[in-house]
Amino acid sequence: MGIMTMLQKLNEEDMMSTLRKAAGLFLLFIVVLGLQTAAGAQAEAYQVIGHTELKALVDADMRNFLLVDARNPEEYREAHIPGAVNIPQKKMDNLLGLLPADKRVRIIYYCNGVKCGKSKKAAIKSMEMGYTNVWVYAEGMPVWEEMGYSFYKGGDYEKKIETTKIVPQDLKKMMDTEPDSVTVVDVRDPEEFAEGHIPGAINLPLQNFASGSGVLDKDKKIVVYCNSGGRSYGAYKKLMKLGYKNIYQAIFADWKEAHLPVAG
Predict the structure, then answer these.
(1) For burial by CB atoms within 10 Å, which of 48, 88, 128, 242 has the most?
(2) In-domain check, residue 134
(3) CA proximity to 119, closest of 104, 96, 141
(4) How many CB atoms lie under 10 A from the CB of residue 167?
């Protein structure tokens, strides 16, 4: 065998060795990625329960499961579902003794609605600890109240709040100059909305406001209004409980009195 032939053969062998090593590393990468993906999927494999099914469970026998309010103690003391224990998500590590010793027991977490992440984080934490029957009542306390189900009311539940009001001229300017940063919500009935409303407003009637609140962006300013203030006050309180921070209340009668445009 000539020298050139030998060198060529050595180069081919080196190339094949390099390719085999690369293939092995790639295979290892795929395996690790698959394991990480599976672990992530497992961590979020809690189940979701709706208000109708949860109500049936609460009415039947609460000895068969643990209902956990993952909100802060102040919110729990103001109002909570009967039989729920308070394990705030942020203080969960200090209150693990409140969880059942048997990790097969059904645990249901809730907080303040679909945009609230506390119940989901608490559920994932429980699964990481080995609990195998973990659920989330994603609609949360606001929808439970809205459905008219019984719940515990603390002394401050009926306490009057002060809303941040916005006059028609300022609302019109806000909508004209920063339309992408504000959502205007008409909380009246659909029939009233159809008869006439603020241009660009969406309709979320008060009676199912919390149920439909998932369409509202928490990063935007939310302006709620009705004819004279009663229903928008109720919607304002619901937004506070749902965790919205930048909320305003407007009055449709004032808007019309200022001769501003009306759609419908």
Answers:
(1) 242
(2) yes
(3) 141
(4) 13
Contact 98, 113 (CB under 8 A): no
236 close to 224: Cβ distance less than 8 angstroms: yes
Phi, psi of 217 (to 5 degrees): -80, 120
pLDDT at 120: 97
**124 - beta bridge partners?**
none
Residues 115 and 180 in one domain: no
Rounded CA separation 159/21 (Å): 70
User: What sign does the dihedral 128-94-157-188 (CA atoms) show?
Assistant: negative
Residues (pLDDT < 70) of the chain are 1-44
Same domain, 172 and 200: yes
pLDDT given at position 27:
52
pLDDT of residue 228: 95
In contact, 214 and 239? CB cutoff 8 Å = no
**Number of compact structural domains in the chain:** 2
Same domain, 111 and 187: no
Rounded CA gap, 208 and 202, in Å?
14
Picking from 223, 194, 226, 189, the residue whose alpha carbon sits closest to that of residue 205 is 189
DSSP 8-state code for residue 106 = E
Reply yes or no on whether 226 is catalytic: yes
Tell me, rounded to whole angstroms, the distance of Cα 86 from its chain centroid. Answer: 18
Range of the domain at 99: 47-153
CA distance 54 to 214: 20
* Same domain, yes or no: 178 and 148: no
Q: Of the candidates 113, 128, 153, which is a domain's last residue?
A: 153
**Catalytic residue selected from 68, 114, 187, 226:** 226
